[in-house]
Design brief:
With 231 residues, the protein is of the alpha/beta class. It contains nine helices and six strands, in the order αβαβαβααβαβααβα. It has two domains: 177 residues, 3-Layer(aba) Sandwich (Rossmann fold); 44 residues, no CATH class.
Length: 231
């Protein structure tokens, strides 16, 4: 559905595109491809599927595979665990002066090796139900390249269009693999209509932001709203 829609992938550089893969797969193959991506070092993955039961089945299989590979998996449900996620994001923001991560999201690669762990993997399902403010902050969980943290963001058909909004650009640009579960034939048209509506909404929002930025520049240059048409 998203394969030929270049607007969905706006804002990604050529270098990023070379390391970016988008696949439409059946559930049986989806967990395999996601696990391979983690095993080869990808740090941000996206799973999209309108069937929540099928998506959870993929995640369960994926979690078993990566846990057997030594990853410490932290599961968060965006539908009911927003408080847990908020606490993690706050922990990231409130770092100690020495640069260490505050308690709540410890990610020390040397400690992981001592414990026989490959690293920490945060799996967030129903991410499409998170407020945009929370979704846009997920990139903070990665902290920096030295942290041994991976992130899998999962949700319904609305997730990918939401990740393509300007607020979520840092997270989207860090995404290495997008797996979209093939929808049942009867749902494909409904999903297309939903995406088209979201694209139109995003376009209207971006146009409004562009107008507001122009008005702000006028105000900054003149020190008055008179030339901008605002009374």
């Amino acid at each position: 559905m998203y394969q030929d829609n270049q607007e969905q992938f706006a804002g990604r550089s050529v270098a990023q595109e070379q390391g970016f893969v988008q696949l439409a797969l059946r559930a049986a193959n989806a967990s395999v491809q996601l696990a391979k991506a983690v095993q080869t070092g990808s740090r941000v993955l996206v799973l999209s599927g309108s069937d929540g039961t099928e998506r959870r089945s993929v995640l369960a299989s994926f979690n078993r595979t990566v846990e057997s590979d030594g990853f410490q998996v932290k599961r968060i449900d965006g539908a009911c665990d927003e408080g847990v996620l908020t606490k993690l994001l706050s922990s990231k923001a409130d770092q100690h002066d020495d640069g260490q991560i505050a308690p709540g999201l410890q990610s020390d690669p040397s400690k992981h090796r001592e414990l026989g762990l490959a690293g920490q993997l945060i799996v967030i399902d129903n991410a499409d139900l998170l407020p945009l403010a929370s979704l846009s902050r997920l990139h903070a969980l990665m902290h920096n390249e030295a942290d041994d943290v991976r992130l899998l963001v999962s949700g319904g058909a609305i997730l990918i269009p939401r990740l393509c909004t300007p607020d979520c650009r840092p997270l989207w640009q860090s995404t290495a693999l997008v797996v979209q579960l093939d929808p049942p034939a009867g749902e494909e048209r409904h999903s297309n209509i939903l995406v088209e509506r979201l694209q139109a909404e995003i376009a209207r929002t971006e146009a409004k932001l562009a107008t507001q930025r122009r008005m702000l520049r006028i105000f900054t240059d003149t020190g008055s709203f008179e030339d901008s048409g605002i009374g």
